[in-house]
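Forum > Structural Biology > Help requests

Title: Can anyone predict the 3D structure of Acriflavine resistance protein B?

Hi all, first post here. I have the sequence for Acriflavine resistance protein B but no way to get a structure on my laptop. I'd be grateful if someone could post the structure tokens.
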Amino acid sequence: MTVSLCLFGLMGYISLPVSDLPNIDFPVIRVQAFQPGGTPEQIASSIAEPLERHLGTIAGLQEMTSQSSAGMLSITLQFELSRDINGAARDVAAAIQAARVDLPTTLRQNPTYSKANPNDPPALILALTSDRRTMPDLYDQATNKLLPRLAQIHGVGLVQISGSALPATRVEINPLMLYKYGLGFEDVRAALASANAHTPKGFIETSKLRLQIATNDQVHKAADYQDLVIAWRNGRPIHLVDVATIIDSVEDVRNAGYYNGKPAIVAQVYMQAGANSVAAIDQFTREYPTLQNTLASGTHLAVVMDRSSVIRASLADTRMTLGLSLGLVILIALIFLGSPRIVVIPAIVIPVSLLGTLGFLWLLGYGLDNMSLMALTISTGFVVDDAIVVLENITRHAEAGLSPLNAARRGAREVRFTIVSITASLIIVFLPILLMGGLTGRLFHEFAVTVTLSLCISAALSLSLTPMLCARLGTQTANNTFTHFVDVWHDHILRVYARSLTIAMRYPTLVLLSLPLSLGLTWTLYQNLPKGLFPDEDTGMLLGRVMGDETISFQAMERDMATVQKQLLQDPDVADVAGFLGGRGSSNQGNIFIRLTDKNTRPDTLATTISRLSQRTHSLKDARFFALQRGAIRIGARPSNAAYQYSLQGSDPQELYRYTQRLVTLLSQEKTLMDVSSDVLLGGNSMDIHLDRDTAARVQTTPQLERWTPFFGEVSKL
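Reply #1:
Sure, ran it for you. Structure tokens for Acriflavine resistance protein B below:
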């Protein structure tokens, strides 16, 4: 039975999934919609409100937040811990489909969703670089070759590609030339659409032949667009090149990606709630050679950050602690029992109990993480207590003259009630943890279950395996120099204890007063100690953000991003820096991922390193740099630039914005706070056009801006 239990535990140890913490992630789904050219107010009223109305009816929805920016909407849905993320995703897809009739017809594509928390750090960050390929070419490879393979990895919720855009032909129209020829933007749009029909043409069939018809109705290069006729004036054609500049470029030129200061395409891999990051990254590692070979020659795929290395290092430290505690427990047992032969018994019982616990953890569907390993480490003391209690009582009967078999029978029978009662009382201690709810209960549930299982297995082995080993191996204490030294040391300890006990009994009042004094000191220390849900862990990774002024241009943000990366790479604690700017996010915010050097080579703490990096970037004039350490536990799904955040709510948006700015100003004056920012960005300049509808009707102009150029000053006021 013992061998079977050991094999069961080894199977569990091999098969247990590995992670840093138990599954405590809230099921989070992110919904995004894009409306190029739309203002935040238009996005909020025409897209956000209909979507929120339908998404708000989903069962188990705990929190819904939305953020509207220029041309983009992001809605984050956080569900209850008990909600399955796949079932929630099906409900979200149905709600998006139901909301389609309420969304504007100008929306080019349906809103999309992803099973990833935007507040989580990426599990894997990759950088695609090349000395011979252009950035659009690299982005095309990342989108068509890299992204599908990464998305197929089990547990991946979102793969985000940043740094450039897909190749495209850009037509930059000159409004003055349109005015000269009396044309409008709609004329150019219609000409471009007619030149790219790309529709099936059918076939011609005769009695002998069947001919499939194919035409060159799809234009791919900028040179093919130059001679495109958009209108006729005075008997001659007006070509597209006469009113516009046509170049081969990308869909969105306001994109930039960096890796250690060089242009790169950055790929971020986010995991869905409950997924195993280590298993997913192991799968990527196995497929990495194949991915590298599928890319074009001269292209290199670099791993910037890998969360699995931190998780493995943390688990390795916990395993070492478990092994060290096991060795120390056996050493203490050797010192007090005084016989290496007797110590063999707890040295067998303790590992068997821990292995059996791992087997049952596998059976219950738990994982191998810091909480379960910590529970096994604590359980080592409980397990050895049971074994020593039984062993000591059997040894007492053996020294009284009973045979090993009879001593084992009588000794185990006498302490069985003690073992059962001790085990039950310890399990009752951990019962409140088992019954806790919410995030804290989910975090410590696996810890309590692991301790409970180890206590039950320890009690069973103490009343079965320990007596059997005592009956077969014997419990006679050896008589040698080592045991003589231990006996002398025990006698010395007993004499010291006897003297201290005599003094304590001589002054009973003073001993009684020590109780309230101890309680008062304990309460004082409890009040003054810093408090938190989980200690901060130095993972060697920092998330940075460069936030520019609302009026800053993309070119100025590029310069600030280059300056920040150069200053960060000069720090001795920084190993690699990757980041991106632009894309479908805000144009005045750049994201930077910082990988620090090995923890053993860094003399400063993580807080000191963050403060030093912030001081290095104080030279920025029109932007600010924020550095943030993502903790092991992240509550909520709303991303921010700091570890703490306040949310303001109100019915009047203008009043809410006004009080938000007042709160930010007052918090910035607080000396204990280092960085204060807000996600409300309303300081940028905009152009507001008020139409004179009477004049517009007189000159037959509509708000669709088809032919405004000749009459722009007459029908509008800026």
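Residues 706-712 have pLDDT under 50 and may be disordered. The chain has six domains: 1-14+274-475, 26-116, 168-250, 480-529, 541-668, 687-718.
Shout if anything looks off.
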